[in-house]
Each structure stands twice: as C-alpha cells, then as structure tokens.
C-alpha cells in the first residue's frame, strides 16, 4: 500500500503546486521559496487553496512571514454587506500564515496556539466594535439605573471566552466558547440619537450577542470566520443569551455544577468591557476555587470522565486525539482537577493556560518533575498533531484521518517515515497520560477496614453488636458503642445526601480502626466524633478523608496526641487541609515569609473579611508550627520564635487595617510617627500556643498637631483611637476565632496610665519613675511594627535606660524580692507536678537572672543590649565573660527542656506543670545554681 499511497500523495501535490505557480509565477523563481511552498502544500490543502485565491498573500509570505496580517482597520457602517467577507478573508489569510510558520518549523506549538487565540480575539473585537456602533445609532447606549431611578454610567457587552480561547491556547480550527454578560440591568439612552428605539438591557445585549455570533459563524461564499458555541452559558441552550452579573452570580450560587467550575476556571474577558469582565471573574473566584483542599472536585471529574467515556464508546471515538483515552482532554482535566483541589489555598496555581498551570503544580510539589515533564511532552505532541489534522482542510475535527493518503501526509509532515511510526509515538504518549489520569481518579483509599466494623456501623442505630468494637481494640466498648449510636441518630447524619452518606460510611469504619490502634482509643474516638459532627455538612472535608488515607491516618495520630490540635481541628475544619499540605512536613517559614503571608491577606474595604482571612492564615501557620513540635522536627526554641514572628506579622497587618478604619473620618496626623512595642514573651520571641500579647504603644508628633480629616483630632486622641482600634481588631471574634488576647498593663503607670505614650513622656517615665521590675521588662522589649525612625528612637531610650549605672547589691535585692512575691502568688507547683514557668528553678527564675545581669553590667558591656530572647542573652553573656562556658551550656539546655515541656503541655491542653523527670530536675538545678552563683537567692530557706 505504501507505494500506492505515496504515488497518490505526490500526484496531488504536483497538481497543487502547478496551480500555485500559475497564481504567482514570479514567487517560484526562488528555489528555496518554491521548496517551502511544497512543504506547505503537502501539509495543508486549506492553505494552498487560500494562496491560490489570494496570490498577493503568497507574495507577502515570500517577503515577510513574521508580521501578523493586519486586521480590518474598521468595518465601514455604510458597507455592512462587506463585513462578513472582510472578516473571513482576514481570518483565512492569517490562518494560512500560521500554517506556514508551523510547517516550516518557525513556530513551536505554543506560538501557533497563541497566534490562533490572538486571531480569534481580533475578529471578535473588530466585529463587536462595528456592531456596537450600529446598535448605538439604532437604540442608543445602555445605561444602568442608579438608586434614585436616574440613568447612570454607560454599560457595554462583556464577551467571556471559555475553554481554550479563555486559556489563550486555541487550536487551529477550533470553535470558540463564548458567554455574553453585562454589569447590571438598565435601558438604552437615546437622548443623543433622535429616532433611536430604546431597549431594555437584556433585549439589547441579547440581540447584540446574536448578531455577533451570526457575523462570525454564518457560512457565506467566503466560508466562515469562527464557529461560535454559546452552550456554556447558564442553563445552556435553554438559558437566555446575555446575563447580568448579579443574575449570573445568583445562578452559580444556587445552580452551579462541577462541570461549570471547570469551564469557568479558564474564563477570560476577550472582547467588550474587559475591566468589568475581570471584576466579575474576581467575584466568581470562590465558586471556582474553594477556600479548602477540594477533593470533592474529583467526584465531578469522575462524572464528566464517565460521560465522555460513554460518548467515546457510543460514537466509536477511540482514535479521537482530544476525547479518547490518554488524549488532550485527560491532560486538561488532570491539571484542572489539581488546580481546583489546591488553588483555593495557593493562588499561584490559578493560571488559565495549561502549561503554566502544570509548571506551577510541579513547583508546588503537587506533581513530580518527571510526571510534569512527561505531561508537557505529551501535550505538545498531541496539540501539534491535532493542529496538523485540522490544518489539512480547516476542519473542526479531533479524529485521526482514515484515508491512507491523509495519514501519510500528516506523518511525513511531522517528520515520521510513515503512519505506523507516528502511531507508535502517539500510543506511547496516550498510554502514559491515561495511566497518570486513571491514578488521579482512582480512590486512594487505604486497606479495607475489617468487615465487622463496617457491618457494625451500617447497622446503627437500631442494631449492631458492640463486640465488634471490643474485637477491634476498644477496651471501653460499651461507651464507644453509646457514642456511635448517638452519632448515627443525629440530625447531621440523617440529613446527609446519598453521596455524602456513602463517604461517611467509608470514612467512619476506617476512623474507628485507626482510633482503636492508637495509644488512647477512647480519647481519640471522642475527639474524632467532635470533629465529625462539625464537618458532616461540609462534604469537601468528608471527601478529603475519603480520598486521602494519608490525611485520615494523620488526623487520628494528631487528635490522639494533642488536645489543642484536636480542638482547633474540630472548631476550624479548614485546618484539615494542613494534614495534606506538602509544606506541613517541610521546612517552616522564616520571619520574612511569615510577615509576607500576613501582608498578603486583604480584601479592600472589607475589614471583617480581612480579619477572618488573617485569622485563617494565623491558624494554618500556627498549626504547621504545632505539628513540627508534635513531630519533634525542630527545637522548641525555634517554634516559640516562629510563633512570635507570626504575631509580628498579624500585628503589622492589623495596624494597617486600623489606620484604614480611622483615616476616612479623621484623616492622618502629618509628620507624626507611631510604633507598637512587644513586651514579655512576644518581645523575647518566646511565644506559646494561645499566648496573649503584651503590647505598649508609642507615638511622636509635633506640638499641637491635628489630623487632617473631616473630623480632626489632636495627636494624642488620634493615636489613642488608633491603639484602641488595634486592640479591638486583635480581639474581634470572627468565624475563624479571634486573633489574640492583648494585655496593655505594662505601659507606663500600668492600668492608670494613658493607653498611648508620647516618646518624650515614655523616656521621662523610664528615667524618673519606673520601678526596677519595669526596667527588667524593658530587657525583653522590642519594636514589633511601626515607623522605623521611631523604632530607632525607642531603641535609644531602651539602651539609655538599661545602661544606667546601678548598685549591684540593690539590683539583686529588688529583683529577688519581686521574684519571691511572684512565687508566693503564682507558683502552682505541688508534690507531684512542677510549675515550669513560675516554680523554683523555672523559666521565670532564668529570665530574672538574665535581666538582673543586664541591669548590673549593661553600662560597661553595651553588647548585652542587642539581645532580647533568652538564648541570645545567654550567648551574649558568655561572650562577654559574665557566664562561663559550662554554665551557659547548662542554661541553654535548661531553657530548651523547660520550654519544650511547656509547649507539650499546651498542645495537650494541660497547665504548664510537669512531673519531675531527670531532664527537668537537671534544668532546675542548673538555673538555681546559676542564680545562687550570681547572688540571686529567691528562696532564703
């Protein structure tokens, strides 16, 4: 067959070249150009016929094939009958140039797809501009209605491109998926167009959209421009042609289906009012991308895949490059599904185009590098083959050709000896893609749980034998049985949809089995059931546990070992995402990354939404830090430091919000400065889980300064209002909880003093009236956020205060006396448990020792003033010869041991008290010994 096929191909080619030479004989004087024309004619009958009909185009390609063809500069309103011809000839000419560049190897497949997209956009915009001008003359312009009933701003049609047009990767002869929309209801204003007939917005934009589709899609003597598909609009063919933004939002909230989330994932405004279109897509983002890891998206994908597979089987489309097994659609769905699962949490994944999206998934470790490279190669191969099949005769087809001649032409045009060699390469790509796609859709459930537990759960609440629980490992089987029967009877379980109930029926026995195998089965069960009650109505979380056995096993492990994390998971199920986040087991963010994560949170003009989002970020990051503590992946000192840095970022973002709240009414105080100081564990970068924040506020402003707003305030009142707002926002209750409790009692004069101190009054207070214990507190104080220059001035006040020459004996007496009073009031140690913070030889003893040494020696040793955190202070004192190496080492170890034990207590929701283990005894001995060595005796007996 091969010689016959080859002979037929060559005969056809010879006839085509003869016609081309006849159309433009001078162009064929150049042998190189003639050879290029031969390559083109071998690959595309459509391009050859276009050049025969438009010989000037052949001359243009010979001169310069780099510049795109010029779109019609404007369709003449007085020559409307010419519009279809001009658009179609432009489209065929530019399409032929794209074929020329593809066949000759000038463009890669990405450039061809981008060129096809630009061509469609140019035709759309040119046609719409002409039609809008015509509609304005006939019906005026559409204006929205204002609240008082008058006519408002002019509205234009927004044309959304979906599918490959939206993604900027339109294949050569593709149809274009369009949806028409407009901002709001209204009617046309004919005041500037006498005789024009007014229309309401829906009728106006519907007719405009219909005319646009007809102008592009209708077949004339010059063919068609672009095939238009409007079926992706709400309700498909049954829905109206043009929709207002509010109506579309309401539709997606109430009726939106999974396939529409995939469709609108790639949506992009391509003609008309592009800015309005982008605003709508931003509002639609929560419909497409959920705020959590959305494994429920896989169910929708499975349904779509099943429907496509049925269509492929029914219509015998196994050789369809797009819809067949391992085809383009599977690559698209695989990438889009992973974007939808993770994109709500990771904005970097929200690209419309496939290859950038795939690259982002690889960078985020959701796709391995090898798999990513394989999918890129397959995608490029399949899209190039698809283009060549369509370029042959400008047909909207995705099926491999059946005619032997066509097969040979395509194979040879792509550099293969024959069809068999091309088919072998194609089958290799499709097999690898199909395997990867099937792996994504296959439920990743763990080993099946014992039938007895599944049978037991399915029988509840009216039947079921608790012996199944005892056999699984629950010692208190009766209590467990009672809890599970209550769950089965609960309205939450009874009200589940069939699909959600199916997920619960798979998840619950697996959770029972995992809980039974934990170190504390009943404890784990109670905590797991508290969580389940909160997520029953949130199918995405059941989907996560159903689809991801790793998340399920991590969940049981976490809740059985940490009461705090169990409580947070139950209260804020969004944190379940962290169990699967690839970052949870990786390196934890540094200070700059934590600050950037907080800075990035925000919804312009919506303080409540921003606070909730900020709290979600704080919860997620602190959860990640807590997991590192629980897993022993980093020292407690680093975790406490990260928690303090996270608080820094939150306070910094809240200060911006507070300014935004106050400025509209009161303006700003010009040439003034403000700073937030962190004291205590925040200042010492030693924050715990659930710790409050010790804050002090400073300002500096010119005398008699006032704010410049509509209701001006003098500087003291303006900054007091700002500080009050910061405290209120930090403590505001949102759906994600409150950010932090705030303690402001360490300010000058304590509860009796002003909330905000001027820099001058603060310096005077520290110099003249502050007690020794207040200077101790200043050792750990630092500027958390605010004006850099004021932070520098505060640093100077702090240094001047701490470096004052003091009588050592008096310092030691006053520090010891204060510590003894604190011990008497706050130490919760008893015969069995040691108070890690306030007990004798505990963390506060160590803090007091270091603070006393700073107060005594800072005047002669300025290097001590740079450190705030306990480890840094110990190291600084060793470097300055105030602590010998052995003592410094033992204090480092003591601090780490006590801090670690304290964080463990917090994670298990216990008071920070611990049994006297050898490590804790050693820590107490080291701290007490160092205190005595330096003359600090906290317990004279």
From TrEMBL:
Glutamate-ammonia ligase adenylyltransferase repeated domain: residues covered = 39-282, 553-794
**Keyword flag Nucleotidyltransferase:** yes
Stretch list, region Adenylyl transferase: 454-941
Q: Which UniProt keywords apply?
A: ATP-binding, Ligase, Magnesium, Multifunctional enzyme, Nucleotide-binding, Nucleotidyltransferase, Transferase
What cofactor does this chain's UniProt record say it requires?
Mg(2+)
EC annotation from Swiss-Prot or TrEMBL: 2.7.7.89, 2.7.7.42
**Keyword Magnesium on entry:** yes
Q: Which InterPro entries match?
A: GlnE, GlnE_rpt_dom, NT_sf, PII_UdlTrfase/GS_AdlTrfase
Q: Outline the segment boundaries, as ranges, of region: Adenylyl removase.
A: 1-444
Q: Which Gene3D superfamilies match?
A: 1.20.120.1510, Beta Polymerase, domain 2, Nucleotidyltransferases domain 2
Could you list the residue ranges forming a coiled coil in this record? none
Top-rank lineage group of the source organism: Bacteria
The UniProt GO MF terms for this protein read: [glutamate-ammonia-ligase] adenylyltransferase activity; [glutamine synthetase]-adenylyl-L-tyrosine phosphorylase activity; ligase activity
Every PII-uridylyltransferase/Glutamine-synthetase adenylyltransferase domain range: 302-440, 817-899
**Reactions listed under catalytic activity:** [glutamine synthetase]-O(4)-(5'-adenylyl)-L-tyrosine + phosphate = [glutamine synthetase]-L-tyrosine + ADP; [glutamine synthetase]-L-tyrosine + ATP = [glutamine synthetase]-O(4)-(5'-adenylyl)-L-tyrosine + diphosphate
Q: Which Pfam families does the UniProt entry name for this protein?
A: GlnD_UR_UTase, GlnE
Its annotated function is as follows: Involved in the regulation of glutamine synthetase GlnA, a key enzyme in the process to assimilate ammonia. When cellular nitrogen levels are high, the C-terminal adenylyl transferase (AT) inactivates GlnA by covalent transfer of an adenylyl group from ATP to specific tyrosine residue of GlnA, thus reducing its activity. Conversely, when nitrogen levels are low, the N-terminal adenylyl removase (AR) activates GlnA by removing the adenylyl group by phosphorolysis, increasing its activity.
Q: Which family is annotated?
A: Belongs to the GlnE family.
Question: What is the protein's given name?
Answer: Bifunctional glutamine synthetase adenylyltransferase/adenylyl-removing enzyme
């Amino acid at each position: 067959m091969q010689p016959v096929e080859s002979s037929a191909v060559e005969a056809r080619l010879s006839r085509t070249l003869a016609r081309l030479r006849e159309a433009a004989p001078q162009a064929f004087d150049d042998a190189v150009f003639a050879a290029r024309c031969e390559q083109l004619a071998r690959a595309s009958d459509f391009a050859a016929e276009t050049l025969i009909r438009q010989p000037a185009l052949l001359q243009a390609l010979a001169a310069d094939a780099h510049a795109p063809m010029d779109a019609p500069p404007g369709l003449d309103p007085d020559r409307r009958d010419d519009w279809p011809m001009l658009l179609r000839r432009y489209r065929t000419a530019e399409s032929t140039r794209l074929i020329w560049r593809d066949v000759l190897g000038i463009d890669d497949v990405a450039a061809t797809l981008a060129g096809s997209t630009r061509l469609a956009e140019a035709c759309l915009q040119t046609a719409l501009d002409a039609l809008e001008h015509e509609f304005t003359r006939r019906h005026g312009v559409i204006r929205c209605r204002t609240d008082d009933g008058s006519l408002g701003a002019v509205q234009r049609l927004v044309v959304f491109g979906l599918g490959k047009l939206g993604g900027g990767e339109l294949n050569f002869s593709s149809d274009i998926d369009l949806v028409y929309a407009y901002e709001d209801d209204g009617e046309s204003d004919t005041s500037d167009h006498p005789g024009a007939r007014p229309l309401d917005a829906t009728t106006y934009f519907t007719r405009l959209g219909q005319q646009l589709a007809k102008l592009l899609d209708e077949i004339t003597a010059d063919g068609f421009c672009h095939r238009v598909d409007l079926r992706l609009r709400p309700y498909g063919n049954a829905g109206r042609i043009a929709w207002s933004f509010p109506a579309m939002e309401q539709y997606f909230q109430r009726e939106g289906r999974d396939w529409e989330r995939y469709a609108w994932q790639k949506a992009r405004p391509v003609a008309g009012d592009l800015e309005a279109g982008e605003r709508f897509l931003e509002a639609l983002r929560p419909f497409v991308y959920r705020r959590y890891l959305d494994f429920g998206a896989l169910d929708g994908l499975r349904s779509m895949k099943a429907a496509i597979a049925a269509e492929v089987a029914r219509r015998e489309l196994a050789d369809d490059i797009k819809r067949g097994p391992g085809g383009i659609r599977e690559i698209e769905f695989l990438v889009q599904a992973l974007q939808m699962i993770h994109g709500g949490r990771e904005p970097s994944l929200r690209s419309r185009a496939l290859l950038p999206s795939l690259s982002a998934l690889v960078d985020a470790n959701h796709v391995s590098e090898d798999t990513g490279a394989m999918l890129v190669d397959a995608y490029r191969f399949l899209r190039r083959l698809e283009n060549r099949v369509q370029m042959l005769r400008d047909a909207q087809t995705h099926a491999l050709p059946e005619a032997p001649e066509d097969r040979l032409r395509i194979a040879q045009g792509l550099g293969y000896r024959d069809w068999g060699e091309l088919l072998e390469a194609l089958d290799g790509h499709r097999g690898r893609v199909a395997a990867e796609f099937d792996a994504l859709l296959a439920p990743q459930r763990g080993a099946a749980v014992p039938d007895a537990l599944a049978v037991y759960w399915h029988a509840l609440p009216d039947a079921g034998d608790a012996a199944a629980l005892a056999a699984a490992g629950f010692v208190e089987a009766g209590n467990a049985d009672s809890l599970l029967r209550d769950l089965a009877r609960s309205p939450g379980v009874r009200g589940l949809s069939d699909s959600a109930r199916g997920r619960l029926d798979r998840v619950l026995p697996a959770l029972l089995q995992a809980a039974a195998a934990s170190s504390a089965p009943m404890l784990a069960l109670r905590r797991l059931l508290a969580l389940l009650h909160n997520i029953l109505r949130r199918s995405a979380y059941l989907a996560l546990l159903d689809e991801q056995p790793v998340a399920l096993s991590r969940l049981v492990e976490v809740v059985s070992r940490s009461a705090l994390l169990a409580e947070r998971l139950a209260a804020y199920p969004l944190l379940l995402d962290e169990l699967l986040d690839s970052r949870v087991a990786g390196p934890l963010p540094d200070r700059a990354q934590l600050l950037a994560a907080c800075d990035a949170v925000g919804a312009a003009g919506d303080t409540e939404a921003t606070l909730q989002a900020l709290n979600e970020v704080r919860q997620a990051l602190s959860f990640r830090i807590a997991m590192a503590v629980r897993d022993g992946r980093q020292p407690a000192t680093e975790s406490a430091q990260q928690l303090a840095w996270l608080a820094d970022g939150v306070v910094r973002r809240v200060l911006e919000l507070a300014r935004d709240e106050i400025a509209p009414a009161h303006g700003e105080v010009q040439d003034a400065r403000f700073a937030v100081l962190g004291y205590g564990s925040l200042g010492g970068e030693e924050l715990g889980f659930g710790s409050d924040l010790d804050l002090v506020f400073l300002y500096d402003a010119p005398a008699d300064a006032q704010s410049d707003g509509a209701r001006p305030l003098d500087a003291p009142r303006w900054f007091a209002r700002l500080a009050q707002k910061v405290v209120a926002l930090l403590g505001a209750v949102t759906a994600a909880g409150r950010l932090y409790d705030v303690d402001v009692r360490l300010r000058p004069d304590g509860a009796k003093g002003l909330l905000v101190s001027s820099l001058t009054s603060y310096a005077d207070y520290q110099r003249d009236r502050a007690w020794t214990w207040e200077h101790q507190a200043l050792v750990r104080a630092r500027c958390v956020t605010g004006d850099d220059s004021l932070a520098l001035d505060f640093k100077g006040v702090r240094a001047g205060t701490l470096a004052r020459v003091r009588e050592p004996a008096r310092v030691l007496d006053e520090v010891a006396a204060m510590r003894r009073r604190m011990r008497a009031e706050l130490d919760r140690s008893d015969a069995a448990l040691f108070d890690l913070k306030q007990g004798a030889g505990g963390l506060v003893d160590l803090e007091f020792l270091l603070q006393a040494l700073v107060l005594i020696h800072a005047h002669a040793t300025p290097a001590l003033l740079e450190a705030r955190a306990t480890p840094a202070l110990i190291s600084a004192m060793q470097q300055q010869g105030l602590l010998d190496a052995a003592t410094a080492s033992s204090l480092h170890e003591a601090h780490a041991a006590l801090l670690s034990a304290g964080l463990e207590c917090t994670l298990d929701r216990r008071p920070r008290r611990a049994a006297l283990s050898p490590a804790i005894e050693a820590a107490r001995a080291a701290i007490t010994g160092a205190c005595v060595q330096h003359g600090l005796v906290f317990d004279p007996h």
